[in-house]
């Protein structure tokens, strides 16, 4: 049997933590390994317990969820972070992604949505709306790409680079598999390799990294999109 | 002399001259009726001829005096012509009569010359007197103006020694005018004020004219401070700097009022910001969390009871959860309007982007943000710039009727500069300070105060029909 997804919850409200943990523990493939009540504690617990995913409230005392996310990503880049936020407008979300979030949900999201999001992140699927991805690309272009160089590019195989471009279009693993005539398993394996090589924990981060390093451009995405249609 | 009198004198003199000449030749004309009777008698034993010559003399002088030099000369010539034939033809002793005649002519000539000279001198004296009087009046007026002007006026020499000072100097210095004179201006200046004075002096010495009044702080006799609006001019003599002329208006009270107003605006802004922050936090941390909890518990109830509870109950619970979620969203919107957490969490540029997008969404305005990669800014600076941008964009929304707004943020090592430009209808800047405030639009003042709070400066450029530009420059 597949190992359970190990989750750390960070929220300053005890009753909310309790409600969250109730949602996750009722799932057979998930387990709560810790609860943090502020940003600092979240960073400490994350580096100690090495969870797969941190579910983080953005508004917390000490340093907030955003700062905690940055620190966790610095200490342990392979930990994915799902942010719970009060706002979901684009600029805000872009900021969350810049800080290293794998995805975000509104705080008031249903339990099922939370569970689905965690599974998607674990599977290397996209949890972002295509509109957000495009916006991310635009902003990346403005911010003069190509600073981190093709360090990452050199690491990736041709196939993986191809996959990365498809990934940026927001296609699901299944769609990518169909497109490239591969099995879903193979695509997942590739994804996992890409993430490992790029030292990230999710698609969103891979995307952000790729944009930062200039590995992806808006042209790539447009090309892929048009050939898709 | 009036023309009438003039003409009367001319006619009268000509008449006298004719009578006199007839008399002079009465011996020749003795047979002519009436005219032959005209004759002057002898006086004091003098002969008729001598009396007549004397009468000619008087007539010439009279003509020269009453009518003018030209008429005098005419009569003088005429008298000469009249007398000489008589002197040559009639009497027995030609030599004596000729001598007498010439003597009369010479004396008459001298007399009218003297009269003329005196006239000229007299006229000059009159003119001189008039000028002197006018000058004295003007000087008195000037002195009166200088001494009692409400502005303090003084002149100090190149070493700073005060050489002239008016009464109003007492108001700004605390010393009576006679004590002010002789003191050095530096005695009234704090080190800071002295620096300003040196700067002004240097500029003036370089030949720059300083048209605008500048603020200066003077220390009074009792140690208190006067704020004056000062106008300084360099006086030169033959190109050489000679002294400085100063006109100072006491604006202590005005400045104090202005400072008070500023202070109040500042305090209000800060209190408002604090209050907003507190309310936003409470909404966010307390009430919002409770609503989320409510939603979450309903969710657990729904998913846990999917099999056990009747369908109608489940759908009612889902409805309740939706209401809770809506309440959460509107609460967050409200909290965000009070205090945009995007600013605290994502920084200025993200927050400006958010503002621009909100504006674009609401109206058909193309709003764009162009920003340098900024160094990390103090949170007060970020907040102030954000609020200024918010106010500026609000003005665009309400008044500008613009189709495009651009926000740019640039920074160098020491300063940050934010520019907000629209292509709207603009306004005339003269309306700015007075009328806008009167109309209750304190927004502009609020922006200025916020800029000042972070040590920055706000500048507004606008012209009717040419859009508006708001520029903030602040140190970082």
Describe the overall structure.
The complex is a heterodimer of chains A (229) and B (476). Chain A has 229 residues and is an alpha/beta fold. Chain A contains twelve helices and five strands. In chain A, strands 2-1-3-4-5 form a five-stranded parallel beta sheet, with helices on both faces. The relative contact order of chain A is 0.12. About 3% of the residues of chain A have low confidence. The longest helix of chain B has 55 residues. Chain B is an alpha+beta fold and 476 residues long. Chain B is rod-shaped and about 175 Å long. At the A-B interface, helix 1 and helix 4 of A face helix 8, helix 9, helix 10 and helix 11 of B.
In short:
The complex is a heterodimer of chains A (229) and B (476). With 229 residues, chain A is α/β, with parallel strands linked by helices.
Describe the structure using short key phrases:
heterodimer; A: 229 residues; alpha/beta; Rossmann fold; B: alpha+beta; Beta-Lactamase; 4 domains; five-stranded antiparallel β-sheet; five-stranded mixed β-sheet; 14 helices; 59% helix
Oligomerization state:
heterodimer
- Major sheet details of chain B: 5 strands, antiparallel
- Main sheet of chain B: which strands, in order across? 2-1-5-4-3
Please give the order of strands in the largest beta sheet of chain A. 2-1-3-4-5
What is the CATH C level class of the largest domain in chain A, in words?
A: Alpha Beta
Q: For the terminal residues of chain B, how far apart are their CA atoms?
A: 85 Å
Largest sheet of chain A: 5 strands, parallel
Report the CATH superfamily of the largest domain in chain A: Response regulator
Number of strands of chain B: 10
**Which range does the strand content of chain A fall in?**
5-15%
